[in-house]
Amino acid sequence: MKKLFIFLFLFVLISSCIITLSYKSSKIRKEHSNVYIQIKKLSSSIKKDLNKRKNIYNSLNIEYNNYLAKKYPEMNRTLLKMELIFKKVKTEEKFALKLKKEVYLLTKNKKKIKSDKPEWDKYDIIRDKAKALNNRVEDLNDKYQDLAEDYNDIAKNAGIKEVTSKKIKKQFEANSKKLKNIVRLYENKVDKFIKKYSSDSDKSDKLNEIKRLLAKINNKNNDIKHLIESFNNRLKGKKKIYIIKNADSVVHQIKKAYDEINELGVEINKISKKL
User: Fold this and answer.
1) Per-residue pLDDT tens over the stretch 47-92
2) Among candidates 96, 100, 97, 74, which has minimal Cα distance to 140?
3) Does 169 lie in the same domain as 253?
4) pTM for the complete prediction?
């Protein structure tokens, strides 16, 4: 009897020492709400970054006749990998929302979740899912950042450069003014040759050649005007644009046409010395 009494006493003592754990429902809801918000922010950030890169890539491919697609195919492959990461993050965002809703249902009309109640085990499962979710999202973010660095390296090697529209326009205006003076100079020079030698049949072939060269200069000048007009339309409403250094673009086409006009002018000068 004495032994039984001691046993019962110990049982009651141990039972009284068992602590009932609890979580405040408001705190649980806030924690899971924050998890969803953070993943949603990350998703939005990745989407914004990815869209910017894709827009730059696509616009440069149009401007440079698929130069990037042909010369740097790894750039598009990297973008596709980044797109895949984004889709996975969006999936995790939906899963985070699902967990958030589960928590709200579990804690509905409850101030606390207690360890001696059935919902405690249910919350443990949700909490484990949330931890695994957080690890997956961190891993996806790390992978995206690595791919972004790879993309930046490729873009640097390709010669992609950001320039201000103001700088380009200023450059165009200066070149247009200079070109206008050059064309006028050759037009005046040719007019003088024509007035001076038009009656000299021996000079007719050389005069015709000079006229032909001047016509080429005027054509090139018109080409440059159209290119500048086209490029200015591209610049409308944009403070900055992206170009590819040393590639065939409007900027380089203008420079090429400008150089060709100078070469034609040199030819005119050579012929004029033989008159």
Assistant:
1) 999 999 999 999 899 888 899 999 999 999 999 999 999 999 999 9
2) 96
3) yes
4) 0.70
Buried-state track 100-136, b at ≥16 Cβ within 10 A, e below 16: bebbeebbeeeebbeeeeebbeebeebbeebeebeeb
Contact 31, 133 (CB under 8 A): no
Tell me whether strands 112-114 and 22-24 are parallel, antiparallel or unpaired: antiparallel
Number of domains in the chain: 2
**Same domain? 210 vs 264:** yes
240-244 and 160-164 strand pairing: antiparallel
DSSP 232-245: HHHHTT-SEEEEET
Contact 43, 93 (CB under 8 A): yes
- 């200015």: which residue's tokens? 232
Q: How far is the C-alpha of 231 from the C-alpha of 224, rounded, in Å?
A: 10
pLDDT digits (tens, 9 = 90+) for 180-201: 888 888 888 888 888 887 777 7
CA distance 195 to 252: 37
* Parent domain of 170: 163-273
